[in-house]
Amino acid sequence: MVGILTEKNSAYENFKKALGGVSGIYNGEQFILTHAKGHLYQFEEPYKQVDASLSGKYKSWNIDFLPWDEKEFKWRRIKKPGSDALLKEIYNVLSKCDEIVIATDDDPSGEGELLAWEILSELKLRPRKYSRMYFPDEAAGNIQKAFVSRKEIPSMDKDMDYIKALYRTKWDFISIQFTRIATIFGDGRSVLRQGRLKSAMVWLVGEQLKAVSEYKKTPFYQTRFKDENGNVYTNNSEEKYKNKSDVPSKYKPSGVVVDSKEIKSQPPGKLLDLAALSSILSAKGIKASELLATYQKMYEDQIVSYPRTEDKKITIDQFNELLPKIDAIANVVGVKTSLLTHRIPRKTHISTGCAHGANRPGPVVPKSLADLKKYGKGAAEIYTTLAKNYLAMLAEDYEYEFQKGHIEMYPEFIGKIAVPKKIGYKAVFNYADDDEEKTIGKELGKTASPFIHEGFAKKPTVPTQKWLMKQLEKYDVGTGATRVSTYSEVTDESAKFPLLVDKKGKITMTQCGEMSYRILPGTNIGNIKITEQVMLNMKEIAAGKSDPEKLLAEIRELVKHDIEVMKKNGAAMRTALSIKPVEIKDKVVGEWKGKTIRISSVWGGHTFTNEELNDLFAGKSIKLTGIRSKEGNVYNVIGKLAEQEYKGHKFIGFQREKYV
Fold first, then answer.
1. CA gyration radius, the chain
2. Span 98-120, mean pLDDT?
3. Global pTM?
4. What region holds the Toprim domain (predicted)?
């Protein structure tokens, strides 16, 4: 029996349709299906990863206990809340199978392998054979093909996609230390969340906001020429003056000499990734979190393609799959089919080796945009944007005449203009950030006259989601889907300590974001290249060229460096923001009444022992002796953890029940 584990219920349903049922025979082999629900396991808290004798060190937020030694970790996993029934069902199905097939999403980061092996390992499922199905999407034909051509995997330890993903998830788990450091050296009250991508986003936005605030609009004045069609001719060497009255009147009107006219063409822009799509839709009020939720539901019904792709192009097979559906897609989104005359593959958009292909419409074409409302907010906008972007590839190139000329009497003054001739793909979709020739206008004129131009140094761009995503892409930080997911987290208005604020795509900072930004200069976690290095390490691990354990050990030095830097930056930050220094009390972490909490490790001058902490987190009362009051009196008390409030601030801590 071949047992097939899919990533989620929606995939399970598509596999059921493709293979003919929950169980049966396909291609001469007996199979049975089951499914997960994303990750069903997670790492335990740091203090539960180590021996009991070390738990106090990892519970504590005392800076003296950092950096952690990852070799002390057991890397224990626990079931996610509410997963018991599903795990039992998976075990009951797969424990009877001779072969277990991993049929989770083929994510470039190895996330699909990671969540599958977590389940198989923790459930101790040991069939005679493991294998992997690779599929670009959940279309029936691709599922059937993947089943027939599945590849054997010798073992979990030999699955290098799993090994690289495990390294990445361990790295991120260990990086919790950076949050503790930033919080300790912050205001002592706010949790300043750090992470490879979070910190990069905060740093980039902070630097840009600083550049915007420091910009001074200082004018300069310079002679230029303008012809009767409004085209401007400039001399890059022409002197600039601070005052308009200082500009000399040494030029006269003159004829224009056209030096060249050349017909040029510009192909359609690249296909969108999830980050670019989110940037477009954020300006329409669709938040990143809403995009992710709606897109996932649409993908599950094959309305759109796989979301978490790294591809920017598609394969010839993927091109041919959608070609018969082009007119139907165009009709849904209101594009004239007469514009789609380039129905052959473009070298600029087609490539080999694209597992999922770029984000695009799926094989199922909706009857109308109204039918998409059931998927959630922004569904119609998501489909329209993706479809028009894809359809633009099937329209003709944009053509223009590039004209270049100069002022006859003053040849150093040059004019350049792009005169549109054929609008081409721009009639379908135009999201190119920069046209090949930026200045678009009428024909170069016959004569031109001098005028005094008032100019300014270019003002820095106000940070927007589009701007931020371009910066992250420039530095190759994360995939498009990861950028959108992390952006959704740092701008989450419901979070207790959000870092950034998104208002229709425009970004500002919260107080926590400002503190975080000021504490990051010179740190490793704030270095945008840290994610680039982690991604490079993953590739090296997958190729068998690097030892993940040695790479994880390098984090200790990163932490040591950042402790010193954040300590210095934190002091400067509190001064700059007029934040009163607070006594940073040592905190310990534990589970109390089913939730993870942080409490002070000291009460009344008494430091709790590990045994006392274990009793407190278990809800028990403990006895403290020799407590000294401010007046110098000594007394004994019995107390336990309780929810309390002090000056409007709610917290959980030790509360005296009675004196003894």
1. 31
2. 94
3. 0.79
4. 1-140
